[in-house]
Each structure stands twice: as C-alpha cells, then as structure tokens.
Amino acid sequence: MPDLPSISVQISALPDSPGVYQFYDVEGKILYVGKAKNLKKRVSSYFNKKQEYGKTRVLVKKIKSVKHIVVATESDALLLENNLIKKLLPRYNVLLKDDKSYPWICIKKERFPRVFSTRKLIKDGSEYYGPYTSMKTVRTLLELVRSLYPLRTCNYDLSEEKIAAGKYKVCLEYHLGNCLGPCEGFQSEEEYHGQIESIRQIIKGNFKSSLQHFKSQMKQMAAEMEFEKAQRIKDKIDILENYQARSTVVNPKINNVDVFTIISDETHGYVNFLQLSHGSIVRSHTMEIKKKLEESNEELLQLAITEIRQRFNSQSKEIYLPFPVLVEENIKVTLPKLGEKRRILELSERNARFFRQDRFKQIKITDPDRHTKRIMAQMKADLRLSEEPTHIECFDNSNIQGSNPVAACVVFKNGKPAKKEYRHFNIKTVEGPDDFASMEEVVFRRYKRLLSEDEPLPQLIVIDGGKGQLSSALKSLDILGLRGKIAIIGIAKRLEEIYFPEDPIPLYLDKKSESLKIIQQLRNEAHRFGITHHRNRRSKGAIDSELENIDGIGKKTAEQLLKEFKSVKRVKEATIERLAESVGMAKAKKIYKNFH
C-alpha cells in the first residue's frame, strides 16, 4: 500500500454525517465494517478511549487506514453495512450467512397456472411465496390447496388454439376428480383463475374468502336438492376450518407483522423470527450468531433484522421487538408490554430458547470442547470472576448429633467431576458439632497441603453454607496468604443464594442457569461423598463398640477379629476353636459365651 497519513489525520478528515466506515490493516485487508450516525464521532471513539474487551483492543492495534461511504440517513447506512459485510467478509464482523436453500410455493405464469414447490427462483413472471423454513409446511399447504381445489399437474402448453384443435385428452387425474379437464376445454379459464385467486389468499393465511365462497356454494346445492354435492362442499369447509383452527394462534386482526427476539450467552446470540399473517404464524426461523467483538444484544438484533427481512423477502410494515433498535425507514416498531402482543413476543423468545437448548445438546455430543468453553465463560460472567473456573473445589461438613464429624472436598475440572482427586477429612481439632470451626480446619488443611506439595490451586472454591461458613473458610485463606488469589463463594441451601466475601447482599442466579446447575451439582456431590464417608465411620464405630462391649475384649482384639473374620456376623457364627486360633482360648471362651 502507498504511504498513508496517520490515523488521527484520517479521522480528522471524516465528515459528521451518517455513513459506513471500513477499517483496513497494513496489508490492505479488510478488518471491520460498521455504520454510524456521525462518522467522525464513531470512528474517533475507537481510538479516544480504552477498549473494554480484548478482541476490540487487538482490532484497534491492527487498523492502519479508514475508508468511508456517506449516505443520506442512518437507516440507509444499516442496509449498506449489511450488504458490504456479505460482500467483503471482514474478519471482525459477525457474518450472517446461510448456505441453505429454502423452499418456495410457485404459481406458474401460464394460461392455467400450476401450483408446486420449488427451491429455484426463475424470473419468468411467475409468483413465488416464501421462502418457507420447513418443507413440511410447504407440503401441508399444497395438500390443503389440492384437497380444496382441483388443479392440473401436467406441463402441457394449454393455449387456446391447441385446446380448440383437440390436441390433448384428459388423463387419469381427471377421472379421479383431481382435475376438471381444462386441456379439453371442460373448465373455463375464468373459473380456473378464480380458484387460483382463492389459493393465493390461503397461502397468505387468509381463509375468509374461501370459506364464504364454499358456504354460499353449499347453500345453493342444498336449495337445489343436490345433497351429495352439498356434502362434498361441506367436507371442504371442515378441512379448511380445521386447518385454520390449527394455524390461528393469535388474534386474526393481527396481520402482516414480523416478530424478532434475541437471547444470548458469552459467545453466541440466537435471534428468532416469527411472521404473522391473518392471525397465523406463517414462518418461524431462528438464527445462531457467533460473537466476534462481544457485541451487545442490540447490535446483534439490528444486524439480524436487516438480514432476515432481506433473506425472506418480508414486506411487513410493522415489527414487534423486545427493545428499541434502528430499523429501515417506514417500518413501525412496537415494543409490547402486555396483552396478546406481549404473549407473541414471549412465544418468539421461547422458540429462541428451545433452539439454543437443542444446539447445546448437539454441541455437547459433537463438540464437547466448545460446550465446556461456553459453560466456563458463562460461569466467569455470572460469578464475576477474573478467569474461567476450569478447576473448582467444593467443601461440605457432615455430622449427625455431633458424632464422627467429617468433611468432604470434591473437585471438578472443566465442569466435570475429577473423582480421583476427591478427599475425605476426619475432623481432628474441633470438639462437638461446630460447622464453622470444622470448615476452617479442612480448608486450612487442604490448601496448606497443596502449597507444600506445589500442586495447582483451583480458580474457584465453593463452600456449602451461608455467610458463617464462608467467613470461616476465609480465615484459613488469610492465614495461608491466599485471600484474593482464589475466588471463593458460599451457597445457602434454602433459596440457593450465592454469597461473596464481604458482600451482605446475596446473588440469585436464574433457576435454569447452567452456572447454578454446576454449583448445585458440586454441592450435591460433596454432600453425597461426605455422607457416604460419615456412614462408613458410624458403621465401623458401631461394629467396633459391639465387640469392645464384651468383657475382657479391647480395641486391638476387636480390630484383629474384624481383620480376620471380615464381619461381626462371622465372629458370632465361628466355633470356639476357630476363635481360639485368632485370639487365644481365654478370649475365645468369653466371645463365644457372649454370643451364645
């Protein structure tokens, strides 16, 4: 590239007008395309302030030149930005691409038009409706149309001259009642085009005119005593009303409206699009968008609206949104707060959420590394951590009526249990049931050992308990000099509150949050592991005490008997001679006499 003036000089030359800017690197490769209400202010903002996100800082360091295109309005900039992103494929832009070809319903430009599905748009004057996001929807619509109106399926040239010359003969479809034989002049062009007009309305979601037409026909046939024909028309009315009942999910007065919602996580956004016509959802599509520069929901939704409306050739003049964003001119934006419109918005959001869940399930199977990275990134954001918690340890105390106090430490790595690293602790320095002191002891013992053995420390410690247990654990971290080096939180069981050090107000995560599910899984696993160890100790203690209660039998003899006979039951069943082999005849007589 030729020598360029400095970035500051290039920015100073930018106009204060709406437009689109393009960033290029030292080799002249496109880095980023953006739009702005004021080009100079927007481009300057990249260089005048410290960027919050790492990827944006990297982008700014690479920028060597800025180009711009001035447009009349901000909405013009929106459309131009979308087109340039698709054309130039900048590295740091979200790319809204879709390699899938969607089906359309075609009404062919012919004297007697055929109606069929296609994935190719041919500019020959034919009418195309769609695209539809599901072939199943297309098939269902075509089946409905063909059950109501007999249409030709042949590809003959049904010109007036050829029909008059008797060039064609009716086929099997005519004899089956699926076609009225326009090829032999049995059906007029006017009647056929009347059917086509009704089909247009049905495809658009408007069933009213077809229902009125069939009802008037049915009454006329009944008045003329043509009851069989009247019954056949009634069957068509039933088919149409059943389909309408299934497809009408909102108020029929809501017509020609697009609905957009978005949900997102740390790495991706999911935008759902619903198109409403005459109270029916005629199209639903969810787009997954990978974030490049930690884009906000507003930025992602704005890009997606422009792209989706272009892709699906939407002519709707009103859109429902969860929050305001810039859209094309002459489009009415509605932000529903309650009532039926709000329920439609919630339905769209639910579709986006279900799509996201399905994608997670697929990714968990096909790309477990991406699944793990996403969950770690989500936990980092939800719990306000400085790094992703790939190594987490959770502590839980177990004691029943103060007997055999124990504690458990479970370890999760990359969101999964690392069972070989689980540890049990028998409480040594605490007398009686004191959860706070017990927690202080086990946390101190655990991390003193990891430090002395130069083992890696976790990024996050989870304490099963509220503010009291968390404070006790913090005392140990203070003594070891680990305060502030390891993130630590407490989880209280009652309402699943998350407590942070020195913050009296707990955090409440969404009950469906994956971060909360991981923390609950940690807590439950620590509880299970601790309880199992506690039961084993109590059980062993009960067995030991049963043998030690025999007069003349001490702790060492009881342990020797259990080591050799494996259980108290076998000791009870042993003969006096067999017992004598283990502990001598004098003790054997006492044991045998006690059990017999």
TrEMBL record:
Pfam families: GIY-YIG, HHH_5, UVR, UvrC_RNaseH, UvrC_RNaseH_dom. Residues 208-243 form the UVR domain. Keywords: Cytoplasm, DNA damage, DNA excision, DNA repair, Excision nuclease, SOS response. Residues 16-94 form the GIY-YIG domain. Residues 263-477 form the UvrC family homology region profile domain. It is found in: Cytoplasm. PROSITE patterns: GIY_YIG (PS50164), UVR (PS50151), UVRC (PS50165). Interacts with UvrB in an incision complex. The UvrABC repair system catalyzes the recognition and processing of DNA lesions. UvrC both incises the 5' and 3' sides of the lesion. The N-terminal half is responsible for the 3' incision and the C-terminal half is responsible for the 5' incision. Belongs to the UvrC family. This is UvrABC system protein C. The lineage of its organism: Bacteria, Pseudomonadati, Bacteroidota, Flavobacteriia, Flavobacteriales. The gene is uvrC.
